[in-house]
């Protein structure tokens, strides 16, 4: 994969809207049988395997959209485990698309943005329970700096050492990069990377763009800073047509029926891609 200009969604025609409404009529029947989804091979003859990258924030019982309840998160992980999905890491993704490494069937990645302390208290033990690995993109100035509600460096070190959680960068201050100067962007990228590497004794390879904002120039600065790739909040599966410095993710939120919403988001992506509404 190479750095390319960000892709934009083409205008939706009336015919596509009608087709989408028809698909919605049949969607409940599809979702009533989770085995239908789990049987998909997730392969594309041209662009290779499809990788699902799940994007979470908080795993707690707050009644806000960013907070997925622990019991809902557990149920989602159980679904993935029971239906043969295989958890991989961002580095596995990089090796597959840049170096030709093989991937297991139905690969997926679990990511968390910001580094909330509930990631340690709630998500971490659930991932251990199912034998999955997650990646937390941390805001380095928020760890051990008087910011309540975020993990500590000690907790980060424990999770990293366990092999269950991978700690990567969400920059120093979480400032939107499109509003920063080049010098400020380099500070956010380079200093957060160095801080994590020095404190945890590991190599930081990936960053998640704060607020999801980026452009081609920012992507070049990310590569210049030594990162192998970067994650956005663009909705979609990842394959060889993806930009390694603009990796798509599926955001998972708390809703009135969080589990059904989770299944719907997994189901919508291949439909949207076939219609050419994303990554056309």
Topology:
Elements: H1 14-31, H2 34-38, E1 43-44, E2 48-49, E3 52-56, H3 70-82, E4 86-87, H4 90-99, E5 107-114, H5 117-130, E6 134-138, H6 153-162, E7 165-169, H7 182-200, E8 206-208, H8 216-224, E9 229-235, E10 247-251, H9 258-275
Parallel strand pairs: 3-5, 3-10, 4-5, 5-6, 6-7, 8-9, 9-10
Antiparallel strand pairs: 1-2
Helix pairs in contact: 3-5
Helix fraction bin: 40-55%
Arithmetic mean of pLDDT: 85
Largest beta-sheet details: 8 strands, parallel
Query: How many helical elements?
Result: 9
State the order of secondary-structure elements, H for helix, E for strand. HHEEEHEHEHEHEHEHEEH
CATH architecture: Alpha-Beta Barrel
Extended strand count: 10
Q: Quick one: overall form?
A: globular
Uncertain runs are 2-11, 25-41, 272-278
Give the termini distance in whole angstroms: 16 Å
Query: So, the CATH homologous superfamily?
Result: Glycoside hydrolase/deacetylase
CATH topology type: TIM Barrel
- The CATH first-level class comes to Alpha Beta
Which secondary-structure class do the elements indicate? alpha/beta
Question: How much β-strand is present in the residues?
Answer: 15-25%
Could you say how many structural domains there are in total? 1
How large is the radius of gyration?
Answer: 18 Å
């Amino acid at each position: 994969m190479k750095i390319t200009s960000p892709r934009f969604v083409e205008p939706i025609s009336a015919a596509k809207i009608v087709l989408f409404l028809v698909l919605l009529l049949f969607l409940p029947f599809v979702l009533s049988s989770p085995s239908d989804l789990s049987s998909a091979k997730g392969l594309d003859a041209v662009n290779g395997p499809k990788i699902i990258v799940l994007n979470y924030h908080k795993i707690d019982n707050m009644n806000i959209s960013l907070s997925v309840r622990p019991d809902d998160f557990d149920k989602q992980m159980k679904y993935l485990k029971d239906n043969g999905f295989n958890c991989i890491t961002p580095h596995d993704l990089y090796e597959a698309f840049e170096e030709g490494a093989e991937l297991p069937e139905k690969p997926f990645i679990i990511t968390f943005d910001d580094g909330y302390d509930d990631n340690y208290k709630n998500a971490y033990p659930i991932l251990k329970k199912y034998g999955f690995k997650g990646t937390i993109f941390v805001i380095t100035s928020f760890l051990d700096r008087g910011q309540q509600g975020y993990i500590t460096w000690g907790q980060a070190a424990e999770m990293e050492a366990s092999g269950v959680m991978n700690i990567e960068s969400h920059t120093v201050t979480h400032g939107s990069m499109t509003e920063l100067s080049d010098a400020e962007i380099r500070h956010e990228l380079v200093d957060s990377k160095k801080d994590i590497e020095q404190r945890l004794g590991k190599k930081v390879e990936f960053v998640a763009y704060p607020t999801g904002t980026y452009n081609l120039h920012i992507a070049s600065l990310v590569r210049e800073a030594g990162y192998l790739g970067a994650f956005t909040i663009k909705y979609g599966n990842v394959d060889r047509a993806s930009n390694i410095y603009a990796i798509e993710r599926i955001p998972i939120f708390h809703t009135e029926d969080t589990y059904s919403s989770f299944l719907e988001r997994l189901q919508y992506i291949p439909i949207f891609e076939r219609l050419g509404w994303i990554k056309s």
